[in-house]
Design brief:
Helix content is 40%, strand content 22%. The chain is an alpha+beta fold and 148 residues long. The mean pLDDT is 86.
Length: 148
């Protein structure tokens, strides 16, 4: 029987697996990851098993990759989709300070400066403490007053 591929060296199978793992970093789909793991497993098995042909190695790696994808993908994605942490800088209701930065009057709030619009009756000037009521489209809506 004539084989389409000669036996692929173990180091080459491991290298292909590592390349697929690196490719997974670019895609993030959790599919290429499992095929990379499968190629590494088949590559390591090449040190212990004498494969008769390269097509058997590739076929086994593909089948193993499919099995790993089918059985573990849901588990990996489920562990990644935990509850989102709230973005600290987007929470409102705290005090901010009106500052002058680069010749522009801005709001200093949670470690950054924002453009702001005054929604209250009183005027705000540099140095005033204000309550941030909302943040929309990179603009903070503030009023001079008591913190909620």
């Amino acid at each position: 029987m004539e084989h389409l591929l000669t036996v692929i060296p173990a180091w080459l199978m491991i290298t292909i697996g590592l390349f697929l793992l690196a490719l997974e970093l670019l895609t993030g789909a959790f599919v290429v990851l499992f095929f990379g793991i499968a190629f590494i497993i088949i590559g390591i098995s090449g040190f212990f098993i004498e494969w008769t042909a390269g097509e058997f190695q590739v076929l086994t790696a593909m089948v193993l990759g499919g099995i790993l994808t089918f059985s573990l993908r849901r588990l990996f994605i489920k562990s990644m989709n935990k509850e989102d942490l709230p973005l600290e800088t987007m929470q409102v209701g705290d005090l901010g300070k009106i500052v002058e930065q680069g010749g522009e009057v801005r709001l200093q709030y949670k470690g950054t400066t924002w453009l702001f619009k005054n929604t209250g009756e009183e005027d705000v000037i540099v140095g005033d403490d204000v309550v941030v009521e909302s943040l929309k489209n990179n603009v903070a809506y503030v009023s001079k007053g008591i913190q909620k």
